[in-house]
Amino acid sequence: MILSPAKNLEMTASFLGTRLSFRAMDGLGPVGDTPSTLGVGKQGHAILFRFGVVVFLDTTAPEQASFIETIRQHVSGAFDEPETESVEIVIDPEKNEHMDSAGRLILHEPSLERVHLVANILAKSTVLAHYEQTVARVVEQVERMAETLRLGGRASIASRELVQQVGDVLLIQTRTVGRVEITEKPELTWDHPDLDRLYERLALEYELQDRDTALTRKLDLIARTAETYHDLLQNRQMLRVEWYIVILILVEIVLIVYDIFIPH
User: Fold this and answer.
1) What is the pLDDT of residues 162-211, one digit of tens each?
2) Judging by DSSP bridges, how do beta strands 75-76 and 83-91 pair with one another?
3) Do strands 83-91 and 9-15 pair parallel, antiparallel, or not at all (unpaired)?
4) Per-residue pLDDT tens over the stretch 32-67
5) What is the per-residue burial (b if ≥16 Cβ within 10 Å, else e) of 138-164?
6) What is the value of pTM for the model shown?
7) Closest CA to 2 of 78, 116, 83, 99
8) Beta carbons within 8 Å of 210's beta carbon, 6+ residues apart
9) Inter-CA distances, 96 with 25, 100, 104, 200, 214, Å
10) b/e string for 58-97 if b means 16 or more Cβ within 10 A?
11) Smaller CB count within 10 Å for the chain: N or C?
């Protein structure tokens, strides 16, 4: 048991980077296996996920900052400004497990399994929030490009930048589907069937399925737009090459005519 029913507790997820390596963390003192749970400060804990999220429980801001600094060397693709998300947890055996009108999460008991389940949901929500903002910025750029083309102008995106955007889209799809598994239930719901209902309720509360679907649609839109624009650039380049060939032929004809009709 790592939660105290005597007080409300704050759980905060921080998306530090694209991946966390657990290989060199044995010396930090793990107290759990799936996911890895470490002690932080006087009585707090940190729950680590390989896809780059650390979920803090019952910790102060200085304790969180100190812990992040300790594991920074194990973070791949670290973000300059990590995405964070928090929830207040209240233990009350007399109430149904749910999110109340104040946004607090009511749990029956402070079991390790329940904490891990909530941390899993919060971690996935934080990852979604990060990529939702990233994709939103790209979608705005795509809209500006489409409007420019509609008005007959030329979009300002270079081929190299276009390729980079396509690469970013593929990376987001790989990370959200392959690593984070947004819509997949955590393994502990299979080991503890009584937690399945709590997972379904929280997944619906955080709209994991709907947000993942919306993100996928936007990624598909960006990919199709990038492909279309790439084809347009290639067609323009081919047309330009054709004009160069025509000009060279005309120059050659002029030179031949000059040699025939102009005496030397």
Assistant:
1) 556 666 666 666 666 556 778 888 888 887 888 888 999 999 999 999 99
2) unpaired
3) antiparallel
4) 455 788 888 888 899 999 888 999 998 999 999 999
5) beebbeebeeeeeeeeebebeeeebee
6) 0.76
7) 116
8) none
9) 37, 10, 13, 14, 30
10) bbeeebbeebbeebeebbeeeeeebbbbebebebeeeeeb
11) C
Q: What is the mean pLDDT of the chain?
A: 77
Q: Is 41 left (phi over 0), alpha (psi -120 to 50) or beta?
A: left
Amino acid (1-letter code) at residue 36 = S
**Going from the N-terminus, what domains does the chain have, and what CATH number goes with each?**
9-111 (3.30.310), 122-239 (no CATH)
Q: What value does the mean pLDDT take over residues 9-16?
A: 94
Position of tokens 């048991």?
A: 1
- Of the listed ranges 39-48, 64-73, 227-236, the least confidently predicted one is 227-236
Specify the pLDDT at position 263: 57
Q: Which two tokens stand for residue 17?
A: 């980077």
